[in-house]
Amino acid sequence: MRRATYILPIIVILGALGLSSIFIVDEREKALVLQFGQIADVKEDPGLAFKIPLIQEVVRYDDRILSLDTAAIEVTPSDDRRLVVDAFARYRISDVVQFRQAVGVGGLRAAEDRLEGILNPQIRAVLGADGVTSNTILSEERSALMQRITEQARARALPLGLEVLDVRLKQTNLPAQNLEATFARMRAEREREATDEIARGNEAAQRVRAQADRTVVELVSESQREAEITRGEADARRNNIFATAFGQDPEFFEFYRSMTAYERALQGSNSTMVISPDSEFFEYLDGSAGSTANQ
């Protein structure tokens, strides 16, 4: 009975020690077995693994692709037009042993601080290189610049046990103090372009109006000329008809001409004429002309 009393705690202690010596490595992570702070073993394959209880400890690190958003920084391209740039990087822990030796107990937070200290100088160096202007950064050549930043950052991150997979520029803006001046310059430029367009439009309108006025004058002149020709031809034809009629019947022609003279002389409601009674103008009114013709 007394023996069972001692054996049971021993079994419990041994079981606890046995369980504490077993740990599971997830497929999304890597593990280091540390003994007195030194690396005793590396566990990169998923599954069960063992360690010495109470003497060894396990430190786990993420084996997935991680991302880091950098703080916004100011860069000055070769055209001296300052820009505010923020980026993000994708990276992974490529060498867990080297990573542990580089960052120590700081872990992932310390590694990201050091990685950001690598990325920001590379962003400034690439975007501030000779020949790189703000227009270049905002154009299709932006992808080539990001590739250069990635390659340079990758080389400098290898001693940390990190592999930089990609670096991307998220935003590229002007500093707040430069925005108003830039907007004012853009407004002035647009206003100048608008003034030029208005001036060109007025000039074109003047040309169109001048052409239209000249066309009107030409059309009116041509129409008047044709009207005068037609009127002259009509007058000539009328005179020809009168001449033919006069040749056929002189008496009738004299009568028609007298009637026309009466019509023109006695226009209006209060026309008054003072003429001698024996005037030839009344030749067809007193019937003398008709009598003479009948004789």
List the helices and strands and how they pair.
Blueprint: H1 2-20, E1 22-25, E2 29-35, E3 38-43, E4 47-50, E5 56-62, E6 66-69, E7 73-75, E8 83-93, H2 96-103, H3 107-127, H4 134-137, H5 142-157, E9 162-173, H6 176-248, H7 250-265, H8 288-294
Antiparallel strand pairs: 1-4, 2-3, 2-5, 6-8, 7-8, 8-9
Helix pairs in contact: 2-3, 3-5, 6-7
Write a structural description.
This protein is an alpha+beta fold and 295 residues long. The protein has 4 domains: 2-62, no CATH class; 66-173, Band 7 domain (Tetrahydropterin Synthase, Chain A), CATH 3.30.479.30; 188-247; 249-267 and 275-289, no CATH class. It has 8 helices and 9 strands. It has helices at 2-20, 96-103, 107-127, 134-137, 142-157, 176-248, 250-265, 288-294; strands at residues 22-25, 29-35, 38-43, 47-50, 56-62, 66-69, 73-75, 83-93, 162-173. The strands form 3 sheets. Strands 6, 7, 8 and 9 form a 4-stranded antiparallel beta sheet that branches. A 3-stranded antiparallel beta sheet has the order 3-2-5, with no helix packed on it. A two-stranded antiparallel ribbon has the order 1-4. α2 crosses α3, α3 (107-127) packs across α5 and α6 (176-248) packs across α7 (250-265). The protein is rod-shaped. Residues 290-295 have low confidence and may be disordered.
